[in-house]
Specification:
By secondary structure, this protein is an alpha/beta fold. The protein has two domains: 213 residues, 3-Layer(aba) Sandwich (Rossmann fold), CATH 3.40.50.1820; 96 residues, no CATH class. The protein is 38% helix and 17% strand. The protein is built from ten helices and eight strands. The chain has an eight-stranded mixed sheet, with helices on both faces. Strand 1 and strand 2 form a beta hairpin. The protein is globular and about 55 Å long.
Length: 321
């Protein structure tokens, strides 16, 4: 883990419990400098919640990092809730958060699903976005979703067999519906088993190695909530079919845009990043050699820090910091 590459843990400025309707209350935390560059930090998943390490990409003297736990994720409540939880809801939540904080615009930084949401947000509110930093972009196409559950078996056949073995034989040709139904059931034993199988497959595909110690206790409960939301989104193609994410790029403003993508990413394949870069105005695509999907791969972490330093210095991602 490239801890030396990252900035020290930034100071917490304030925490907000923001009611957004339908029983959902978002946790929003601000870190860094009160007068710094406002940056919306969009976590992945969907359902993952904000990671403490991701806020360390930001120089705490120059940035005001706004970390938003999306509906049902992280410390937002109710945990793991899928009712009134769609992409349209999350986009409306971003508007509410920005207006609650009194911001006319912000830099938007997202990884994986967070990159998806960042592009959709920029298309929905182009005037609100000062720049886009997108890591390991996910397009939420049916082919991207099917790759994770079925197609990637060719990359890690033994690991995929362990993953698929969590489901009955009759469901192994269509794993996503089985996982979504099981995780929505609320039955502790089956939910835990399904979440562990998913986590192990995801970790193996991301890093190429089978993970060691498995999560338990509160960490396992958080995984169940995370994958309940994620399966809910993926089962519905993340509500990004009409129009698709690539089609929405036509409405994205011509702001500084940088895509960082590992050339060994097997969760969000490089082809998706190429397709997105072709459609986004002012987009620059930078490959991270040897990086998979891990945001803390040394090359990826260094590239994220360098990109944010450049933006803080000159309002763009091109050129020296």
């Amino acid at each position: 883990m490239p801890i030396d590459t990252l900035y020290p843990t930034p100071p917490l400025l304030r925490t907000h419990a923001l009611s957004v309707g339908d029983g959902h209350v978002l946790q929003v935390q601000e870190y860094g400098a009160a007068d710094g560059i406002a940056a919306a930090v969009l976590h992945g998943g969907p359902g993952s919640g904000s990671s403490p390490l991701l806020r360390r990409f930001f120089d705490p003297a120059r940035y005001r990092a706004i970390c938003i736990d999306q509906r049902g994720a992280g410390a937002s409540r109710p945990e793991g809730a899928t009712e009134h939880n769609t992409t349209a809801d999350l986009l409306e939540d971003l508007r509410r958060v920005r207006e609650h904080l009194g911001l006319a615009h912000w830099l938007v930084v997202g990884g994986s699903w967070g990159a998806t949401l960042a592009v959709a947000h920029a298309a929905a509110e182009p005037e609100a976005v000062a720049g886009l930093l997108l890591r390991a972009s996910f397009l939420a196409r049916r082919e991207d979703i099917e790759w994770f559950f079925q197609g990637a078996a060719t990359e890690q056949p033994h690991a995929w067999q362990r993953f698929a073995a969590a489901a009955p034989v009759a469901s192994r040709d269509a794993l996503l519906p089985w996982f979504a139904t099981t995780l929505a059931s609320g039955e502790p034993g089956p939910c835990a088993a399904a979440a562990l199988a998913w986590w192990q497959w995801e970790q193996t595909l991301a890093s190429g190695a089978v993970p060691g110690t498995q999560p338990s206790g509160d960490a396992l409960a958080a995984l169940v909530a995370r994958y309940r939301i994620q399966s809910h989104y993926l089962l519905h193609d993340c509500w990004l079919t009409t129009p698709t994410l690539l089609e929405r790029c036509e409405a994205v403003p011509p702001v500084p845009t940088l895509l960082l993508h590992g050339d060994a990413d097997r969760v969000c394949r490089p082809e998706g990043a190429r397709a997105l870069a072709r459609r986004l105005p002012r987009a620059r695509l930078q490959w991270i050699a040897g990086a998979g999907h891990d945001p803390l791969h040394p090359g990826m972490a260094s590239a994220m820090v360098a990109a944010l330093d450049r933006f803080a210095a000159q309002g763009d991602f091109v050129g020296p910091a």
